[in-house]
Write a structure and sequence with these properties.
Length: about 375
């Protein structure tokens, strides 16, 4: 028995020695192979190390990347009518050599086999020509289907066949800490994939858009990523990358994306109706802070203070007055102007809604008929 055990131990020792020599001198012989049930082996600085693809997101990137495009938006500047005047040239110089076309770079996401794609409004705003470049090398001019500056979403369309399409993910189940990938064309260097996690949900009060409900992520987002895709670990679309918080213009680990469900609703409205249908009641709201509540001697501490009501507007016709505090819209409680805005915007025009307000010591229930939100409102505060 002892002799048998000695032979076995010597055989194992020799086998391990041979494996070590092969891993050191010829590591390529071991790549892609499993030995005795052990993980694949690679060599780092001559030492064998076990490797695993369990933490790789290559499949997600491979699935999503073909549908993320680069967008070139050209804006033709207006030529000075006096540029050909000799006296103008004498005083201001010959400016004929100055470029008359400004070029902006951004990204977009193909979401339909028919050629519809999502991007940011600020990427293509004011553009006279828009060109879309696919990762497979194809390019095509794009037409603008519609834009929604309030949410910073734009819908474009290109006429190409066999288009790659990104699948919409489920943003309702998204949680802080979920892994996400940001795909776009930063600085025009070419398609780039970065990874991170969901840092926060429901970010608002950023002053970027009228309607704000951003996904915050630490995945690197840089200039040129605007309009690109934020995807989950399966390669499904979670959001449209929109903005970054930065003091230098570069990534600082705080990026924001429009949730895919909001972008999809906007897209469907622009395609079907040529506009986004949103409710509006015509008030000017302000967040109710403890200081304001104490100064005005209000009986409620949470809600939205109405500082102005549009004359002959929906809220005014429904009996709302400046100084009222809105605490509830339908079945939804509101404690911020953003919540009030989103709650009202979600209502269909020409429908009546019950709004609870606190007026002094009185709790009132007002019936207000919502109307379609006017286009191009001067400010977000007047758009509730």
């Amino acid at each position: 028995m002892r002799k048998t055990w000695l032979i076995f131990s010597q055989a194992v020792t020799v086998a391990i020695a041979v494996l070590f020599v092969i891993a050191t001198l010829k590591p390529e012989w071991l790549r892609g192979h499993t030995i005795w049930g052990l993980p694949d082996m690679i060599s780092i600085n001559g030492a064998p190390v076990a490797s695993s693809r369990a933490n790789s997101y290559a499949e997600a990137a491979k699935r999503a990347s073909p549908a993320v495009v680069s967008i070139t938006a050209s804006k033709t500047s207006t030529r000075n009518p006096h540029s050909g005047d000799p006296w103008f040239q004498f005083f201001f110089g010959d400016r004929e050599s100055q470029p008359e076309t400004q070029v902006g770079l951004g990204s977009g996401v193909i979401v339909s086999p028919e050629g519809f794609l999502l991007t940011n409004n600020h990427v293509i705003e004011g553009a006279s020509d828009i060109d879309v470049q696919l990762p497979d090398g194809r390019s095509a001019p794009a037409t603008v289907v519609g834009t929604d500056p309030d949410s910073d979403v734009a819908v474009l369309k290109i006429a190409l066949d066999r288009l790659p399409v990104m699948v919409f993910g489920n943003t309702d189940g998204l949680q802080v800490g979920d892994v996400v990938l940001a795909i776009g064309n930063p600085f025009g260097v070419g398609q780039t994939v970065t990874s991170g996690i969901v840092s926060a949900l429901g970010r608002d009060h950023l002053g970027i858009n009228t309607f704000e409900n951003f996904i915050q992520t630490d995945a690197a987002i840089n200039p040129g990523n605007s309009g690109g895709a934020l995807v989950d670990a399966n390669g499904n679309l979670l959001g449209i990358n929109t903005a970054i918080y930065s003091r230098s213009g570069g990534n600082m680990g705080i990026g924001f994306a429009i949730p895919a469900n909001i972008a999809r609703q906007v897209m469907e409205g622009l395609i079907q109706d040529g506009q986004v249908t949103r409710g509006w009641i015509g008030v000017e709201p302000r967040n109710l802070t403890p200081e304001i509540a104490e100064t005005l001697n209000l009986s409620v501490k949470q809600g939205v203070l109405i500082t102005g009501v549009l004359q002959n507007g929906p809220a005014g016709d429904g009996g709302m007055l400046p100084g009222d505090v809105v605490v509830k819209v339908g079945d939804s409680r509101v404690i911020s102007t953003a919540q009030l805005l989103n709650a009202v915007a979600a209502l269909k025009p020409q429908t009546a809604v019950s709004i609870d307000v606190q007026r002094g010591e009185q709790t009132l229930n007002l019936k207000i008929t919502v109307v379609q939100r006017p286009k191009n409102l001067a400010s977000a505060a007047r758009g509730r």
